[in-house]
Specification:
mainly alpha; 5 helices; 0% strand
C-alpha cells in the first residue's frame, strides 16, 4: 500500500492524494450498504412511469445520504420521539373518530324550527 501511495503521490501530487486506514472506512461502508434497502423502498412506488421512478430514486438516495451523515444515536434521538408523538396523534384521531361514531351529536336547531313532537 505505501509503495503504491508514494508512486501515486509523485504522479498526481501530494495534495491530490488521501489515504485512510481500513478501520476508518468501516463506517462509510456501513452507510453505503443501505443501497439495497433503498431499492426495496423504491420498487413498490410507481410514480409517473420510468422517468418518475428514477426521480423518486434520486430523492430517496439523497435523503438516505443525508441521513447517513448522522450517527445512529443522533437519528434515534430525533426519530424515536417524533414517531412517538405521531403515534399519540394517530391514537387521538382514532379515539376521536370512535367517540364521534358512537355518540351522535344532534344537529343544532334553528329558532324557527318546530319540534318533531308537535308536527
Amino acid at each position: 500500500k505505501s509503495t503504491f501511495l508514494h508512486i501515486l503521490q509523485s504522479l498526481v501530487g501530494r495534495e491530490n492524494c488521501c489515504s485512510l486506514g481500513l478501520l476508518d472506512l468501516e463506517d462509510k461502508f456501513a452507510t453505503s450498504s443501505c443501497s439495497a434497502m433503498m431499492w426495496t423502498i423504491c420498487n413498490p412506488f410507481n410514480i409517473g412511469g420510468k422517468r418518475g421512478n428514477r426521480i423518486f430514486a434520486v430523492f430517496v438516495s439523497i435523503f438516505t445520504f443525508v441521513l447517513g451523515l448522522f450517527s445512529f444515536s443522533e437519528l434515534i434521538g430525533v426519530f424515536y420521539p417524533l414517531v412517538g408523538y405521531l403515534g399519540l396523534l394517530y391514537i387521538a384521531c382514532v379515539a376521536y373518530k370512535g367517540i364521534k361514531r358512537y355518540i351522535k351529536i344532534a344537529p343544532k336547531k334553528k329558532e324557527g324550527d318546530i319540534p318533531s313532537s308537535l308536527q
